[in-house]
UniProtKB/TrEMBL annotation:
UniProt-listed InterPro entries: Endo/exonu/phosph_ase_sf, IP5P_plant, IPPc
Alphabetical list of PANTHER family matching this protein: OS10G0422500 PROTEIN (PTHR45666:SF2), TYPE IV INOSITOL POLYPHOSPHATE 5-PHOSPHATASE 9 (PTHR45666)
Matching Gene3D superfamilies: Endonuclease/exonuclease/phosphatase (3.60.10.10)
Keywords: Hydrolase
SUPFAM superfamilies: DNase I-like
The organism of origin for this protein: Triticum urartu
Similarity-based family: Belongs to the inositol polyphosphate 5-phosphatase family.
Protein name per the record: Inositol polyphosphate-related phosphatase domain-containing protein
Biological processes annotated in GO: phosphatidylinositol dephosphorylation
Length: 352
């Protein structure tokens, strides 16, 4: 019953935004909620941590596309969690048939804005367990700026996010939950990373018109910092075959500064918006950009297939209740590859 479901618990002391949603149910702080003690937080930056949840999640909002074969009023995907921190907003959705296999759902926020504390810059991270495989989704907005040396401030943001993001420890029957971002099996990091291209406006515009992505990527700050081992070591990013996503004039396909009649700041085009991943068992199927004009950025989205490990509980139960002999291989976790293409053109596990 809906009334029997416990609400997620929030430690208000480190909160930069006091509202989180699990499924369709908002969670607001109440004084009688149990508080998690965050021993790892040093007080330098807010870190909002929510308690784990092992039950199912609410229904998706009505605007999710309905498909053939679903009952009236039911949707193909359901909302697992959503969280907003100032201008950052992260949602995680799951196919309805696997929602009951998602456990240990937790959220953590780190502010890196004004004075290194406020939430106008920073990250939202969602941790969850699907069968026996842990996933972490990180949405971030890093320090802006196009001057020489600003990339080092963005590197610092990444290191602080990795250091300060903490999830409450949970011990289950078959698993130990991840406490940090890098302890997860599969990680996807996305958002406005704000890394620029170390070339002049005129040089970048000329290379964009020639669609010479290789020459532009050689001067891309994120790629350069990765090659130097200064940020995101061991992380992966797909090949980029689309124009820079920033900065566009309002409601236009022109980069800011192209139209001399408009009074707007000229910004050198750059791939500010990126999607990275870390860990084995993730295969990227696509990496493209959208053409929405509601922002001075163009959105990017990606599709992955993911391997998920699952324990065969029926075989474990059989072994414990009888004297029959089983080969050791039968007791080891095996992989579910949610990679079958359905008529709608999506994999069973989609990350955007």
């Amino acid at each position: 019953m809906e009334g029997d479901i416990l609400a997620p618990r929030l430690d208000r002391r480190y909160s930069v935004n006091d509202r989180v949603m699990y499924g369709s149910r908002p969670s607001d702080y109440q004084a009688n909620y149990h508080r998690w003690e965050d021993e790892n937080n040093d007080g330098e930056s807010p870190s909002t941590v929510f308690s784990p949840m092992s039950y199912g999640y609410g229904n998706a909002p009505p605007y999710v596309e309905e498909t053939n074969g679903t009952a009236a009023g039911h949707t193909r995907y359901c909302l697992v969690a959503s969280k907003q921190m100032v201008g950052l907003f992260l949602m995680v959705w799951a196919r309805r048939e696997i929602k009951s296999d998602i456990r240990n759902l937790k959220v953590s926020c780190v502010g890196r804005g004004l004075m290194g504390y406020l939430g106008n810059k920073g990250s939202i991270s969602v941790s969850m367990l699907l069968h026996q495989t842990s996933f972490c989704f990180v949405c971030s907005h890093l320090t802006s700026g196009h001057k020489d040396g600003d990339e080092h401030r963005r590197n610092s943001d990444v290191m602080e996010i990795l250091r300060k993001t903490r999830f409450p420890m949970v011990y289950g029957q078959y698993e130990r939950s991840a406490e940090t971002v890098l302890e997860h099996d599969r990680i996807v990091w996305l958002g406005d990373l704000n890394y620029r291209i170390a070339l002049s406006y005129r040089a970048v515009k000329a290379l964009v018109e020639m669609r010479d992505w290789k020459a532009l990527l050689e001067k891309d700050q994120l790629r350069s910092e990765q090659r130097g081992g200064r940020v995101f070591p061991g992380w992966n990013e797909g090949r980029i075959y689309f124009p820079p996503t920033y900065k566009y004039s309002n409601n236009s396909d022109k980069y800011a500064g192209e139209d001399m009649n408009q009074k707007e700041k000229k910004r050198t085009p750059a791939w500010c918006d990126r999607i990275l991943w870390y860990g084995r068992g993730l295969s990227q199927l696509s990496y493209v950009r959208g053409e929405s004009r509601f922002s001075d950025h163009r959105p990017v989205y990606s599709m992955f297939s993911a391997e998920v490990e699952s324990i065969n509980h029926s075989r474990i139960q059989k072994m414990s209740s009888s004297s029959s002999q089983l080969d050791i291989e039968e007791l080891l976790p095996y992989s579910y590859g949610y990679t079958d293409i359905n008529p709608y053109g999506y994999t069973d596990l989609n990350f955007y």
